[in-house]
Amino acid sequence: MASAYVPGLKVSSALELHIERRLPLEGEIAVQVGEEVSWDTVVARTFLPGAVELVNVAARLGIEPAEVEGALLKRVGEPIKKGEALAQTKGWWGWGKRTLVSPLEGVVESYSAVSGSLIVRGPQRPVELKAYAPGKVERLLDREGVVIASRAAYVQGIFGIGGETAGELLLFTPDPRGEMAVTSLGPQHRDKILVGGALVSCEFLRRAAQLGVKGIVCGGISDTELAAFLGYDLGVAITGSEKLGLSLVITEGFGAMPMAYRTFQLLKRYAGRWVSLSGATQIRAGVIRPEVIIPLGDGEFKRSRESQAPLSGLQVGSAARLIRQPHFGALAQVVELPLEPQPIPTGAKVRVAVVELEGGGRLTLPRANLELIEA
Predict the structure, then answer these.
(1) Which pLDDT value is given to residue 7?
(2) Where does the chain hold its CATH 2.30.30 domain(s)?
């Protein structure tokens, strides 16, 4: 049977994940290999260096750099409180002394006799790294983090914003073509992860954030509505650090785009379950996709794995998304993969695929115009 590899998004009812969790700096590992963890288990800890403040003592006190050392009340390595005297001039006969106080709490880190300046560094900031998804600790990464093995149903999005979160999955629209209506939002949606259909608006996102919704999974969003919610136009697609009150995963693309039926049905099946979600996206080398992780027990994982179609790469029967106009975003199933290259309107000869659109009708198009929705 003809087959080819086409990059695409993963949508799987049973997937073995190996989730790497790394600290920003070396630190202490808090778990052991083989240990079971939940989404909020702290797996590693470290401390980030505190903020620094450059204090030009000479300029602030109106003295020469050579005189600064004699005016210092605190030496390198000594702790200091915010507002505590840092340096003081002698004055004349005890009168007219000028005092400089520390702009922050911390430690005097260094001093320059050339410039008459010193650096005060604030207290270290503790960082706790959580597991993010339930599973078992598979491997320790020295003092940097861990790898967690997790068995789950899995949905990968095409774009997202916001960091990692977790909550109960709740079906918000009855079908994959529905729009998420702000009038249907209420206090009962607090701490939930809502699954919508074809479109989510800025108004909906703002109201959901006010109500304490943890996350939203939807087929599409318009670029103008996204910019309105963010407060700026998104340039290079590196997201995940936004502090907007919730995380968003878009599964299909920009505009009103119905969620793929298979994706919607998978999420619908697990409504009421606790899931992990991340909107972090990076569209460049080292691609990062937004995702929804639905943990499965050993028994249901085995049953789901056995029921999966054993497809690999683009094959007859593969689900795919069209990624070129005039059918951008349309969902289809591959029905034929001709072996020989065929001419296309541009005059080139390329390998093509024959697909049947979800809404009906067949198309023959270059395989490069398809994005595989991986099982």
Answers:
(1) 52
(2) 319-374
Per-residue pLDDT reduced to its tens digit, 112-157:
989 999 999 999 999 999 999 999 999 999 999 999 999 999 999 9
- pTM score > 0.70 for this model? yes
Instruction: Name the band, by pLDDT with cuts 50, 70 and 90, for residue 6.
Output: very low
The average confidence (pLDDT) of the chain is 90
- pLDDT for the residue numbered 319: 84
The span from the CA of 89 to the CA of 162, in Å, is 50
| CATH number corresponding to 52-121 | 2.40.50
- Tokens linked to 5: 């590899």
pLDDT at 49: 92
Burial 285-311 (b: 16+ CB within 10 A, else e): eeebbbbbbbbbeeeebeebbeeeeeb
Contact 147, 132 (CB under 8 A): no
Query: What type of residue sits at position 15?
Result: L
- Which CATH code fits 319-374? 2.30.30
Strand segments, DSSP code E, in 255-374 are 274-278, 281-282, 291-295, 319-322, 331-336, 342-343, 349-350, 352-357, 362-366, 370-374
Task: Kindly state the tokens that stand for 191.
Answer: 């701490």
The three-point CA angle 231-225-175 to 5° equals 140
| 104-114 average pLDDT score | 92
Output the CA angle 131-136-140, nearest 5 degrees: 75
Domain with CATH 2.40.50 in the chain: 52-121
Pick the CATH number of 158-289 from 3.10.20, 3.50.30, 3.90.1690, 1.10.1740: 3.50.30
User: E-assigned strands of 113-163?
Assistant: 117-121, 125-130, 135-141, 145-156, 159-161
In the chain, CATH 3.50.30 covers 158-289
- Taking alpha carbons only, the member of 2, 18, 1, 12 closest to residue 373 is 12
Please give the pLDDT value at position 1. Answer: 30
